[in-house]
Amino acid sequence: MSDKTIRTPELNNVKKATAIMFAALVKSLEEVNPGLKEAFVAKLDEGYAKIRNDTDDLNALELLSWTRTMITGFDLTGESKAFFD
Questions:
Q1: For a disulfide at 82, which of 7, 33, 42, 73, Cβ 3.0-4.6 Å?
Q2: Residues 6+ away with beta carbon under 8 Å from 37
């Protein structure tokens, strides 16, 4: 973690709420536009790779990772499942 990375409980709460809102939006839109979820996750992965390569901003990476996990249920640890089933 870089010295510039700020991690507080309040920031974690904002990241968690943001991830939940995007997961809910994507899941809702998927119902009327099948295939949207896969397209969104692909763009999310592109954004993650860009941030990882350009800045390595851990807060941004964590937010994107949480959002992806809540939408897809896929987590590298294998412990998570989709937030909205």
A1: 73
A2: 26, 27, 30, 71, 72
